[in-house]
Amino acid sequence: MDKRIAGAEAAVSLVKDGSTIMVGGFGLCGIPENLIHALHRSGVKNLTIISNNAGIDGAALGLLLETRQIRKVIGTYVGDNKIFEEQLLRKEIEVDLIPQGTFSERIRAGGAGIGGFYTPTGVGTLIAEGKETRTIDGREFLLEKPLHADFAFVKATMGDIWGNLVYRKTARNFNPMMATAADCTIAEVETLVAPGGIAPDMIHTPGIYVKHIFKGEFYEKRIEKRTYRQTGGTGA
After folding, report:
1. What is the DSSP-derived secondary structure letter of residue 7?
2. Is-above-0.90 flag for pTM?
3. Rounded average pLDDT per 10-residue block, the chain, 236 residues
4. Is residue 172 a part of any domain in this protein?
5. Residue 93 lies in a domain
6. Residue 59 belongs to what domain range?
7. Phi (first) and psi of residue 108, to 5 degrees
8. Is there a contact between 165 and 203 (Cβ–Cβ < 8 Å)?
9. Angle, vertex CA 187, rays to CA 15 and CA 11, nearest 5
């Protein structure tokens, strides 16, 4: 089945106010840049965003924070985004911060159809408030429930028109598991090929999980923080 869609604008037109969207990426690595920019231009609001972090000031999901299109963030890290920090402290945005390993497993559970899992992470902390606990082999565990979304926006280095995806190195991060945990997964790729253009054993996300795919037109690939080698010294 040919799953091509015209582009980011056409893909984002499917999103309605109040939607829940998983957004792949870690920092600025492996983020669906075209989809985020199209979402920003669309003006759709009251969004719940499930993402490891919320970008940085003036870039990535930080753009949606500036225009107050996000109602709630479910993630692991406030990071260096001052707008996110300010909105959190002023209680202008709802934020659910989750330990990163728990976050990953909750998404995986959502894609696998698992009703929940027990983890020792967070026991005895604020994270445990209101959650079911269970003692297993003398150790206390929390019950964590799966995460699911209306949409998943993922970025891959290559895909075919059937929706099979390949990610590059660290850009693989949260993209594969998010692709499995949404009602509608939309993938943007740097290179789009015909069926057979990707060796079967190289596929990271099978096309069965992907509803729409398109070739991104521009990737800025910003670097979050630059570290330079010191000259004349011993350190780097």
Report:
1. -
2. yes
3. 96 98 93 96 97 89 95 90 91 94 97 97 94 96 98 98 96 96 98 97 98 92 78 61
4. yes
5. yes
6. 8-115+146-215
7. -60, -40
8. yes
9. 30
